[in-house]
Amino acid sequence: MPRQSLEEILPLVQNPSHYLGTEINTLKKDPGTIRLRFALAFPDLYDVGTSHVGIQILYHVLNARDGIAAERVFAPGRDLEARMRHEGCPICSLESRTPLSTFDIIGFSLLYELNFTNILTVLDLSGLPFYARDRDASHPFIIAGGPCSFNPEPLADFFDAMVIGDGEQVAVELAEAWLESKDAGEDRERTLKRWSKLQGVYVPSFFEGEVNPDGLQVLKPRFPEYRTVHKAVVNDLNQSPYPDCPVVPFGKPIHDRLSLEISRGCTRGCRFCQAGMIYRPVRERAPDTVLFLAERGLANTGYGNLSLLSLSTGDYCAIHMLMEGLMDRCAPEKIAVSLPSLRVGSLTESLMTQIKRVRKTGFTIAPEAGSQRLRDVINKNISEQDLEETVQNAFGLGWQLIKLYFMIGLPTETEADLSAIVELVKRLQKVRGQNGRNGQITVSVSTFIPKAHTPFQWCSQMSVDESRDKIHRLRSELRGGRLRFKWQTPEMSLLEGLWARGDRALSRLLVKAYEAGCRFDGWSDHFQYKTWEGAIEACGVDVDFYTRRSRDLSEPLPWDHIDPGVSKEFLKQEWGKALEGEETLDCRHGDCQLCGLCDFEVLKPVVFEAHDPVRADREVRRGEEEGPYKKLQVSYAKRGLARHFGHLELVKIFVRALRRAGIPLRFSLGFHPAPKISFECALPVGTESLEEHFTIQVPLSVSRETLLERVGSQLPEGLTLTACKALGQSPAEAGPRRFHYTVTLKEGVLLEAQLNEFLEKNEWPFTRTNRKGRSRTIDLRPIVKELNLPSADRADMILEESDGYSVRPTDVLRSVFGLSEEALKAAGIIKSPASKGI
Ligand code: SF4
Ligand code: SF4
């Protein structure tokens, strides 16, 4: 039994709301109906994992099946991990707080090599053996999927099965096969055998690693009929389910918006790009379907931002028409639409004009290489003129920030190519000078990492020293003139490259690094290269063997048994064309480049050419109503789990609840319209309250009763609306406000003697230092109107605001009773208006 429950630990960690599992649109099934528990595990923080569309898709397709419950789990922050270990608290799913070890299947998303250590954190906190060979019938199946599984070998020892390719159909097939296997009373090996018959499923234990005479690891299949794993493909996205009511995360996820996948696959053919090879062919979702999903998704989430996802959004054939339809729908409600992955050349003036109808969203351009020669090598078919025109248009239309992405260390790169980056950026700065004097350009540089299944998979990766030198040079030459320079840490790129082309021999390195304390290696504030170096040395891993060495085209590769559909022959041809600087055309409009994937019957590119403009469904559209408006003051209580919400997330929760409830909002004017809603005071995280207020402006037609009923039904557990009253034009007379607080301690004691000492004094100076380090000293005596100790672990007090400055009850307890931070964080605090009492 854990010494403390998660509930007791949460007040002591950062971002407690990330561990609640009470978000809008979470699905909690009746335990009596569940035959298969499927944990969807994301090996990174909640902020990152909840932004990933793949998890949302899997969550909904699995939960749509009777008898299957899919629940989420994310890697805990390091502070929570330490507390869980200390208290013996196992990691649990968010939805039902079920320990992960009791699930039937745990599926990890493998999106990024530098998350791999976090997989072991989740397994470790579940009490599960790391290696598949050490698990038995008492353990769940541990599986994985995502782009990193296209070279599954470095992680093959940890997983029972891995999904190669599009996961949504396979996940359901895996679940159904598991149920059939269970009904048939089969053992683990038989279940794996069933799974191995599904397209896209790799069972690592059905292959054995051997070292060939050249010292290279090759895999020997255990079963003659199971030698190659062909990737799973969703042939037609329009027939494939997509969530129209995704979970709306708390806090500040990295992508805090409704994400709509408008197409999958990109066949531009950039030769360094793994996604462009493994997710072929292009499959677009029909514009009408996208619009329908946008309508439903916005209504069900209340988001004020919508993002169109694709590897290259601007290449979506009907993008102009779609944007027009979407902006007609979104602009009246001030919902911004962003296209996060635009390609130069696809970014036209008319598209930019549509984007800026609500708000100018981010603008990122990826020339990748500075010289035309090198862009030809990598098949990035954009010209200098395209780049200049795009930058000119963006600044001309009022954008203030443009981000440029470059890679260094690309095959055949010379000094001249590096100089070309500097020259190109300077030319683009001049373009900015003419059109956007205040505009800023941010240059981001990362080290080229050769990836499996690309034409550059045989190439050498630059060393850390070379990478550092090149970054240093660019950094010193790209200074000033409203230019920012950012770069990816070369050591991180080295590790990413190691895992990207590694083999099974690396699994023990991962365990060693994990045991030495490595976590969240993709986060610069957590990355511990020295610790990695120690683990590499201890395991005797030759990093250069995996990264620096150019591989012979005939050499067996660790991922040769994984078939992405694109043939090795095609990749070799592309490598040859790269050396000649020869172009390969995009095949989406019919110019098949014979990569080997499509049969043109079942599998082929699916695109939708522009037709009549798509229009929003006027029936369900809720635009902003024109004035006049009335002002309402809404009262609410924040109890139970809702005490973990910080002020800013609370604001977001209410704004989205208002949108979902269909209450028209009034917005501020300007470039970044914000809803007109104001909160009386910011309640600290951890404090419950019986009565808080916000003020909102709504059209006269919205009644108080309607607002209470409709918004009230849209709030997460612990938040309730308690009253709503009309406010006059002028603010009500207000004297100093008083609040009653009850504080119940879990640890520490409150001594009568200390209370008496405080009450006997006429003055009690107290100094508080804010986050910026600024201190302020005030006298607590006139502020603390009452202070009583009904028991040694409970304090009741009435505090009055002084000159608009409010003192927290924890400040009083810290100052008067000398309580520790830890004791104050763990305490239960309930606030109420002084007139009402508890
Ligand atoms: S445009 Fe190039 S880099 Fe971008 S997704 Fe397509 S192939 Fe990859
Ligand atoms: S087979 Fe032809 S059309 Fe299909 S993805 Fe490959 S190049 Fe494109």
Bound heterogens, unique: iron/sulfur cluster
Query: What is the residue-averaged pLDDT?
Result: 92
Low-confidence stretches at least 5 residues in length (pLDDT < 50)?
616-624
The N- and C-terminal alpha carbons lie at a distance of: 34 Å
| Large-scale geometry | globular
Coarse structural class = alpha/beta
Report the count of strand segments.
Answer: 29
Strand content: 15-25%
Task: Give helix % range.
Answer: 25-40%
Instruction: Indicate the radius of gyration in whole angstroms.
Output: 29 Å
Most strands sheet = 8 strands, mixed
In terms of quaternary structure, what is this? single chain
What is the overall number of helices? 25
Structure, described:
Helix content is 30%, strand content 19%. It has 838 residues and is of the alpha/beta class. It is globular. It binds iron/sulfur cluster (2 copies). One iron/sulfur cluster (SF4) binds next to helix 8. The site of one iron/sulfur cluster has 10 residues, from helix 8.
